[in-house]
Amino acid sequence: MKGKLFLPIAVLGTVFFFSSCVSNKKFASLQSDYANLNQRYQTSQVDLASSQQRVKSLEEQLEQERANNASLKKALAALQGSLDKSITQGGVNISKLVDEINSSNKYIQHLVNEKNKSDSLLMVLTNNLTRSLSRDELKDVDIKVLKGVVYISLSDNMLYKSGSYEISEKAGETLSKIAKIIMDYKDYEVLVEGNTDNVPINRPNIRNNWDLSSLRASSVVQALQNTYGVDPKRLTVGGRGEYNPVADNNTDEGRTRNRRTEIIITPKLDQFMELIDKAPETKQEPVPAAQPQQQQPQPEQQQPQQQQQQ
């Protein structure tokens, strides 16, 4: 009987012993898991606090930017109000300004068209003159167009004898061809300018190079008038002496080039003034105190030169 009771008790003890061992291992494992979870929780709490701090900082920055934006809007509204007030006070009429600009643009286009027309006529004049002269004549005649003006430069060797202002027979045929072109273009004025080198003149009836250059130009003008029939109202005489050189007076070649008479063909000044008179009128608006008035450009002064109107 005792032997039968001992066996079950032994079995129960063994079962209890193994059950106790399994529970302790599981408990230790659970404790380890808890510790890991607790560490992760603490780390998450720190991260959360940091994130909340960043969110708070961003919210503060956002609030500051909103305040700045509101301030800028207020300043913009003030500037717009100031601009509207300035426009109203200045009495500026946008539609009127547009009309004036359009009128000015039409006037400018008219001037451009007139200039192009004049340039075209001058080129035709130059081409006709060049074709009318022979090769030998073109050796002593230089023709060019500069800034809407035709310059016909005649060498003194061809026009006069040395130190004289009387026109030679050799120059007659050339002057007749030039006179014909001048008469074909009646809307242009003619200025004849005499030029010398810097060698002083030594003649009893001629005081200096001023006299010589003026007398030579006068001889050409009188030939154009008396011999070839050019209207004297279109002619002007000018003497520039030695003070308008085109080459170096220190060489024979340079002095030869400087001894010349130029026939200068230009549009009539009264036609130009008529174009100026046609400029659109603009009413001057009062200028606000904060805006300084612009000074009008002064006309350039021309260099004085000895001229006699024929």
UniProtKB/TrEMBL annotation:
Transmembrane segments: none
GO cellular component: membrane
Biased composition (Low complexity): 285-310
Disordered: region residues: 235-259, 274-310
Coiled coil (UniProt feature): 41-82
Record carries keyword Coiled coil: yes
SUPFAM superfamilies per the UniProt record, alphabetical: OmpA-like
A Pfam family it matches: OmpA
PROSITE patterns attached to this UniProt entry: OMPA_2 (PS51123), PROKAR_LIPOPROTEIN (PS51257)
Superkingdom as given in the UniProt entry: Bacteria
Keywords: Coiled coil, Membrane
Biased composition (Basic and acidic residues): 275-284
Ranges where the OmpA-like domain occurs: 147-269
InterPro entries from the UniProt entry: Bact_OuterMem_StrucFunc (IPR050330), OmpA-like (IPR006665), OmpA-like_sf (IPR036737)
Record protein name field: OmpA-like domain-containing protein
Organism: Niabella ginsenosidivorans
